Amino acid sequence: MEKAGIKASHLIISDRLRYNLIFTGLAIIILLFFLLDLFLGSVSVKPKDIIDAIFNNSENIARTILVKFRLPKAITALSVGIALSISGLQMQTLFRNPMAGPYVLGISSGASLGVALVLLGFSSSMTPDTIRAFGNWAIAGASWAGAGLVMILIMIISGRVKNIMTVLILGIMLSSGISAIVGILQYFSSETMLKAYIIWTMGSLGNLTSSQLNVLMLSVLFGVLISLISVKMLNAMLLGENYARSIGLNVRMSRVIIITGTSILAGTITAFCGPIGFIGIAVPHVARIIFRTSDHNVLIPGTMLAGGIIMLISDIISQMPGSDNILPVNSITALIGIPVVIWVILRNQRYSEIF
Amino acid sequence: MEHERGKILFFDSLEIGYSSGRMRKSLLPPIRGNGLEGELVAVIGKNGIGKSTLLRTIAGLQPVLAGTMSIDKRDIHEYSRIQLSAKIGYISTETVRVSNMSVYDLVSLGRFPHTNWFGKIDDSGHEAIADALAKTSLNTFSDRHITELSDGERQRAMIAMVLAQDAKIMVMDEPTAFLDISSKYEIMHLLHQLTRERNKTIVFSTHDFNTAVNQSDKIWLIREEGLLEGAPEDIMLKGAFKSLFDETKVRYNQYDGSFTVNSIEKGRIRVLGDGEMRYWTEKAVVRAGYTVTASESELEIEVTSQHNPRWECRKLNDLYEFGSIYDLMSWIRNSEVIS
Fold first, then answer.
1. In the prediction, which pLDDT does A95 show?
2. Which residues of chain B have a CB within 8 Å of the CB of A352?
3. Rounded CA gap, A176 and A36, in Å?
4. Which of A40, A138, B39, B109 is deepest in the core (most CB within 10 A)?
5. Residue A296 within any structural domain of the chain
6. pTM for the model
7. How confident is the model at residue B106 (pLDDT cuts 50, 70, 90)?
8. What's the angle, vertex CA B93, arms to CA B92 and CA B98, rounded to 5?
9. Residues 263-322 of A with CB under 8 A from B
10. Which of A100-109, A164-173, B277-286 has the lowest mean pLDDT?
11. Do the Cβ atoms of B112 and A232 come within 8 Å?
12. In a mutagenesis test of the A interface, which of B58, B94, B99, B122 is the best target, namely the one with the most A β-carbons within 10 Å?
């Protein structure tokens, strides 16, 4: 028995050391890419000017570019990466489905519907300016509600259908159905509002006003806090509903908390940056590969860091340093995320394992 | 009747089944039973009779439709989910398959009712986990991933999780199903040990009649008419086990508790010889559908075991000799067809 105790504590220490090393590494990488994202962009600014702009309060173009454009964009990229990755991780655990993610299961579509209802439905007689008055919180709130509604639907479906692929197909159906409703809304909406909506759907990290960025950051912070207090529940949920209950989990309350957090994270990002795919589904798998654990105490911070890094990289690529063109960030995340998803599908071909 | 040991589990007029909305489907007439501290209780009954439902009801995973269910002297309704989980551990037939989950992670989830909001495991928690791993002989497995375990090892890991949960009652739905024979005995031995050394009350369902009769302290036999409780031998003497089998197809031996598949009696055979050679030859004869007789008969087998075992079979006046029971029985089957 003594021996067992030594063995176990030895294991814990060595694992913790390994995790800490990886965390430190990831933190350094994320800092590097954050700085790189500030230094690189479609307008080439000399690194010296950037450093100047950071440390001196001189009013010049470099400083304007940095403060008005690059910094908000880098912060947005970071927030998007963190929020989508955690929401993906939580969905995968909640639905016990490795293919779950805000995009594939139609959660983003749900959020779009919320936004579309605000932009197109309730405001058929309004102009984009009145929308400003409506407030960013209204749009955010609508997207949360839309995302939450779809999450609950998927939850009900997952309770009845055990097959992972079937849930996925139903998610796609759901998402197509929602698109159809949005299509009808578009048909009946005014030209100016339609334009506002279409621009929104294209998605971008760089179009946020400072007040939108504030709403985004506050919401993501709130979502992250919820996910940090959900760690124990998420770990229990890995065992499936029956075991989770038998070890003492209040399943209903946990679901409400986790769905709330996930909806806020996925909804907020969709509301302000448009539907960005394949980050939510892919990053948790990357974190699992790096850390080789199922413990959410490690996976939540791990996915946060990995998601932030991958989104910063996507942003840097999309700006095509040295060129005037800006690629849609959606395409970049898809090209990065899809290989990971394919790898997971091929590895899990028989679906003998949940994750 | 007063018992020395505490009645940790007790139910009376209990109705089990399903309820959704105003629909209520009770599976059995009201049942009554109890489990004492340190007792190994086997639940047996036909498929679909309600064994799993009873176990799930005890574990608080399904509602009590009517009657009382008391756990450690308090009604089950008085417990919150987390309080109940500190009293009862549950292992279903569902296997946990989560990649990247180590045995240690799994077992530490058993500490769920004892940890704070963030699931931080304290020193006593680590001790309990190490102890659970040692008890289930999984010390060297703690950093192994559960997906890499054999079925028997995974079942031991589940038991370790419930041990770490530190509950007095353990409820297990067919813990030995899907296991190979050696793992099956290992698990049964472990359960037996836990009742004796740790004073756990273990309620498990099984289809393995011999395990239930030979290993358990008490049997809950579930039949259409309800639950019959007693020592395996009590139930044997009442002849109640017959209800498990279709008597037109299966014959039940009241004396040794064994069952044989009924077949049309083909004739009588006398077997001569001694010891285990004779015992197993008789078994084979019975399996082939013959009755063993002590008096002279048309077909006689004599077993001799000097040097090499030999079976001499006399049919009327012909004598045949065989080197194995298999050859002997093949010949008997053949000669049936001819005659």
1. 86
2. 97
3. 38
4. B109
5. yes
6. 0.85
7. very high
8. 90
9. 288, 291-295, 297
10. A164-173
11. yes
12. B99
